[in-house]
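Input structure tokens:
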């Protein structure tokens, strides 16, 4: 009887370990697919008295989780700049256009 109990215990441990490996690898595979399909997006954020307008390459999982794979700063604007709104609007347009260009087909084929 003890041999059967030990065999069942070993089998259960093996199933748990195998299941954990499948679960862990699934997450890695999901990120690999998401990173291959990553897209460039325009974005902005404010910190330390400055507004940054950027273009980011973002990978997204179906769950909504994201990873930023790359980022290019278009402009940093001090919060108190008298022409803040004009600079921000112009930088957002540049970032939007750049994201479209980066996501488009390559001109080299």
């Amino acid at each position: 009887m003890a041999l059967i109990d030990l065999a069942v215990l070993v089998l259960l441990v093996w199933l748990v370990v195998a299941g954990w490996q499948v679960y862990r690898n699934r997450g890695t595979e999901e990120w690999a697919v998401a990173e291959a399909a990553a897209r460039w997006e325009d974005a902005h954020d404010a910190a330390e008295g400055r507004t940054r307008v950027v273009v980011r390459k973002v990978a997204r999982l179906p769950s909504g989780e994201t990873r930023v794979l790359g980022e290019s700063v278009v402009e940093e604007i001090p919060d108190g700049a008298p022409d803040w709104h004009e600079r921000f609007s112009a930088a957002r347009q540049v970032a939007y256009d750049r994201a479209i260009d980066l996501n488009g087909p390559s001109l080299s084929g």
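The chain has a mean pLDDT of 88. The longest strand covers residues 66-78.
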